[in-house]
Amino acid sequence: MEEENKKNQILIKVCCVIAAFILWLYIFNIENPMTERKIVVPVTIVNKNVLAQSKLVQVGNEQPNVSLVIKGNASDVYSVRPSDFQLNSDLSAYVMKKGENNIPVTVKKSPSNISIINNQNLWIKIQLDELKEKFVSIKIILRGKPKEGYYALDPVLKTEKAKISGAQDSINAVKYAAAIYDLKYAQNDISTTLSLQPQDVSGNLIKDTSISPSAVKVVIPIGKIKTVPVNIKVRGNSINGSETNLMTAVPDKVDIAGNESVIKNISGIDTEPVDLSKIGSAESTQIKLVVPEGVKLVNSDGVIQLKLNSSTFKVDGESQRQLNLNILVRNLSDNYTAKLSSGSVSIVVSGSDSILNNLNENSIACFVDADSMDEGVHSANVVISLPQGLTLVSQNPQSVNLEISKKTSEGQNGH
């Protein structure tokens, strides 16, 4: 009995819901009462070109919107969509200024079966800033790699600069106009048109700007890679034959790339002429490579290390030798002691092989003259006296600091 009562109660509730739904359908479709509703509708800004005439630009390009209060029969009000309306704000009808501007909104189109209650009080706010322009370099960013054995050479642009326009803050942030291309294992020259984007120094896209031109024609030459030796040049002469053991280029080979018709005739890359007289006692020095026109170095900054394997070498048919000498102090008063800021000097001398072969450190006088110097620190020239037949090519250092102090007596030392 109790269970039957529960079933009856459930049945009654279901019937009530059905009855309420039928009543709602009747009211909505038959009675269809008047009702109000809010709907958000986008606003189209027209005649933006007048801003440029006033040297102004909109900050932020998000489309504005307003909230409409609409009224009509329930069936009409709830079936309307934002796309059924057309709302405009005409910038040409008002005087614009830098900063925030309130612009009225005009209803150009709306459904005929509803009314807009607040159509006389519709406004949008737009932020304006001074229009600025500047020219920036165009940068082509290459991604991916060409086919193995090939290398992408520097892109050739029809236009080198692009004009960026926009708000001052945005313009100041733009570093260059960038275009990106994926090489995709290319092995032939590429000719294409790429879209440009204003980017900051970190490669981030800068919005709220316009760019002209919006795209650029570019040719990306794809050259073959070739490995060639490095030729060391000394005052215009290449080191070879018996002198090849005197110097070593590190690396001794480099990869080059270029048009096949160009690189097929290149058997090596020369260094800039090396002035051995300026190397002194250095065991190695940096030297630049001379890269022919139309050729690009692959994975090299164009600088190599030049290691010296001997202290004796020939320049323009004359022998040279590098030596390190100890510096002596001459003519120092017996009442003083002396201390040098540097105790040695590096020199390069030139002469005949017979003289250089018999030359040693004891054959050369190397000293500073302390005559007439009192207590204190003095700058003294380093004097080099060479045997007859030798020429001093270079010397480092030319002078040293000489610190002269009075000798301390034994009696004073005992205290």
TrEMBL record:
Keywords: Membrane, Transmembrane, Transmembrane helix
Protein name, UniProt field: Membrane associated protein
Domain of life: Bacteria
Cross-referenced InterPro entries: c-di-AMP_regulator, YbbR
Record PANTHER family: CDAA REGULATORY PROTEIN CDAR
A Pfam family this chain is assigned to: YbbR
Membrane-crossing residue ranges in chain numbering: 10-28
